[in-house]
Amino acid sequence: MIKVHLNRRSLLKYSGAAALSALAPHLALSEVKTDVPLHGLSAFGDLKYPKDFTHFDYTNPDAPKGGTFCFSPSIWILNQSPQTFNTLNGFSARGDAPPRVELCFDSLMTSALDEPDSIYGLVAESVTVSPDKRTFTFKMRPQARFHDGSPLTAHDAVFSYETLKAKGHPDLVVMMAELKEIAAVDDHTVRLTFSGNHSDRAILDIAAGIPIFSKAWYATRDFDASTLEAPLGSGAYRAGIILPGQTIEYERVADYWAKDLPVQRGSNHFDRIRIEFFRDRQPDFESFKKGDIYWRSESVAKTWATEYNFPAIQQKRVVKREFSSEKRPMMQAWALNQRREQFRDPRVREAIALCFDFEWTSKNLFYDVYKRSQSLFEKSDFRAEGKPSAEELAIIEPLRDRLPPEIFGDAVLQPASDGSGRDRNNLRRAVELITAAGYTRQNGKFADASGRPLNLEMLIQAEVFTRSATPFINNLNAIGINATLRLVDPAQYQVRLQAFDFDMMGAAYSLGSTPTQESLQAMFGSKSAALPGSTNFAGVADPVIDALIQKVGDVRSRAELVTIMRVLDRLLRIRRDWIPNWYSANHLIAYWDMFGFKEPKPDYGFPVETLWWLDETKAKAIGKI
Hints:
The protein has 625 residues and is α+β, with helices and mostly antiparallel strands. It is built from 20 helices and 26 strands. The strands form eight sheets. Strands 1, 15, 19, 20, 21 and 22 form a six-stranded mixed sheet that branches. The protein has a four-stranded mixed sheet with strand order 3-12-11-10, with no helix packed on it. A four-stranded antiparallel sheet has the order 6-7-9-8, covered by helices on one side. It is globular and about 70 Å long. The relative contact order is 0.16.
């Protein structure tokens, strides 16, 4: 299972930036004032923070600086891996990069974590939008600097956008597909111009999600190279200790150029952010129990239910608690790779889904910690319920002849079982579906008309997944699918995903609270299906889905967005390109009781490494200082 955030800006930046330009604080991108310097942009609704705000509400400017935050991340993006690393280029498709390398770079703007879809200036002190909303002109702060003291200019921004558009990770390439002109007007002004086929919210991800590199530094280096030389950055942290495959430590930049900007104040408290890498979760857990790792997000239900009884818990030196999840759509599911012929028939995909017994798995393996996922947009307003609303039907009806008739009925639910582990009715229905798809059973195994067996290999990268996957695999074999489980090392796993060399794999995604046309194209669009290294793992290539994604780009209100997303959800659930499995309603967190943090956590992000701080009194009390 891999975990990523499809919304780049939510992870690439953890806090906002200064707001110095003159503008009334109430602004929506759909109603944006044009030809006026703006301090922030919002897709829908008002900006929460006015131009003269001093810091984000969820940060603490009075928190002390110092100490080390040591952990193994539970969320990562692009080519990053929590199990190993062999490159420090975290924005390419090549190699395995360490999580949080993005902390070393600044971007033009950055997100607020207590708003669903707002960004504020970081390197850019203001942005001016053209009347047709195709051109965005950013006025950059003259004080912006790289870590070596050299100025960060518009020429660096142009170099970065052009380089990532041509050579970056496929998700970034897709994001910038409609960005047609990137130009430096002068040393401190950069202009981004779109084709006109973009959504007006594309700028949110592009302005806040693209790191700015040093053009001069790369003049003598190849961006495509997989290298352990730390690139010159400009962010709040720089790479320190680098032990490939084992440890990376990010050091806080004491003279960070943006540290006193209003929304950088109150964040980035730790002197060092240390990430330890483990190829399996049990050694990771043992390291946490010993106190070598200080914070842990638990993702194994059995561990959460039965193994948090070690001495440090009993001595109250370690805290075990749940934090609320973010208010953003989440999916955890298996992708069936339709680049393989045997998975192109939706009846086969439905049959495979019928073989997963969640009820048995939940009771016997998950201790009822998790809930059943029904949607690819779980925990959000975008999840479809019941029959289509009148607003949804207005979108569906013009596409009636291109849509399956089931879309007019109740939203598809994942098959419930009797909890026996081998529900006869579900398995019988699975056999009927595969038979209807043209397969016959020969010696107990399905084969097509040419005699080719119906094979399915589930690809996993950690031993822990064998426990929940094995009963599923056994049921697939029981009905006649030649199913196997393949555990590979992290490097091979990454290579196989990038080449789409798998039958079935699992992933967990957190989409942006306001999904854009571009982010949806990266996962479900036809163009990304043929783009090696993209996150369209299922190989979805459907012109109707493309049309719905295009409509997402055209909406002018959140209500319109919700309606179209629900229609998209209905269609994806009928198609079964992805098989939703389970999710946790909250973050399951344990940590050594040595930190301070502000509550409640922000609704749209949980970057503990940049928001929490070391509480020396607590640390001394538990012997950590």
